[in-house]
Amino acid sequence: ETKIWYVDNPVNKEEVYPQIVDAAKNLQLGQVVAFPTETVYGLGANALSDEAVQRIFQAKGRPSDNPLIVHIANEEQLDHLVEEIPLNAKKLMDAFWPGPLTLILKSKKHVSKYVTAGLSTVGIRMPDHPVALALIEACNLPIAAPSANTSGKPSPTSAKHVFEDLNGQIVGIVDGGSTGVGLESTVIDCSQDIFTILRPGSITPEMIKEIIPTVEVDPATMKENEAPKSPGMKYKHYAPDAQMHLVNGSIEFMHKLIHNSKTEGKRVGILTTEENATKYDADVVLTCGKRSDLSTVAAALYDCIRQFNEEHVDIIYCETFPYEGIGIAIMNRLWKACGHSVIQE
Ligand code: TXA
Ligand code: MG
């Protein structure tokens, strides 16, 4: 049975929390512990121990060629992990850390090869969450952590999601409430002369361009038949049990799709926003934030996708979002959750 360590948010820097001390001790002993970050819950283990990191892969059922992100609480920890820090990478750290940005840098040898999946680079991020930072400080270790879901499922945005997926597989979950951003960090490869965004997130290309002049976006984030540069981007991900389709069309077109699926005897789910919630005559209509503020859509997205499983729908139609700001990350995750299925009016 997996233990739950409740921690009230926000954590007071001066106070010692016995729950966090206990969780940190387990990390030092090579155990796997789930913890909240500002993006999604992470499944943490000592990044310097092969044994500890292998336990993460076991618990998640994660393919071993998919590298993990190492989480740090201060920049001193960075020197032990990476060979060199390009000036532009330093500028990004100064601008966005702590925060939802992962930098891919040249790795030092003693980082577990299970973390890097044998690559010469390692992904590093300093999360902007008081519980995550307190936990990393308390164990005084770099913490390798993928999202704390079973491989293929949507990333967990609450301790309940983690418990659903991993109860019995890990020693414990630090429960610090719901995460804020709701989508995983932006991943940027800083190991080449021109930096490339491998995974879009809430730190948008526009925000990055304000700090460094040129940045590319890996075309595989949105196009089929492109070989992704980030191993994790090639896997089926974030998927609900039922087939989901992105629908690029009018409300009338959506009505036709709903009608046709109902005629086939299917139980139909719709993923929509507050603005359009009353417009559909489907079996299950789930509202995911407000279209007028896309950060609310990001925050609610994975919980909505998980709810469809509880509602036992046969097919899901999902609205599309503007391809700008955090909308880029939302569309990337939906596109993957739909197995790239887009229905065009
Ligand atoms: O917000 C987040 O990033 C969350 C929280 C827990 O910090 N973590 C997360 O980890 O989303 P994960 O393992 O689910 O996703 C890590 C992504 C994968 O797509 C992986 O392939 C990529 O980062 N990645 C990690 N190291 C890499 C490397 N050296 N080169 C290229 N891609 C890398
Ligand atoms: Mg993940």
User: What spatial order of strands do you see in the largest sheet?
Assistant: 1-8-2-3-7-4-6-5-9-10-11
Biggest β-sheet: count, sense, barrel?
A: 11 strands, mixed
* Distance N to C terminus: 49 Å
Rg estimate, integer Å:
20 Å
Question: In a nutshell, what does this entry contain?
Answer:
By secondary structure, the chain is α/β, with parallel strands linked by helices. 30% of the residues lie in helices and 19% in strands. The protein is globular and about 60 Å long.
Write up what this structure looks like.
By secondary structure, the chain is α/β, with parallel strands linked by helices. Helix content is 30%, strand content 19%. The protein is built from 11 helices and 16 strands. It has an 11-stranded mixed β-sheet with strand order 1-8-2-3-7-4-6-5-9-10-11, with helices on both faces. α1 crosses α6 (130-139). The longest helix is centred in the last third of the chain and has 17 residues, at 294-310. It is globular. The chain starts with a strand and ends with a strand. The mean pLDDT is 94. Threonylcarbamoyladenylate (TXA) binds at residues 37, 39-40, 42, 66-69, 100, 102, 104, 116, 119, 121-123, 125, 127, 145-147, 184-185, 187, 198-199, 230-233. Keywords: ATP-binding, Cytoplasm, Nucleotide-binding, Nucleotidyltransferase, Transferase, tRNA processing. Required for the formation of a threonylcarbamoyl group on adenosine at position 37 (t(6)A37) in tRNAs that read codons beginning with adenine. It is found in: Cytoplasm. Belongs to the SUA5 family. Its EC number is 2.7.7.87.
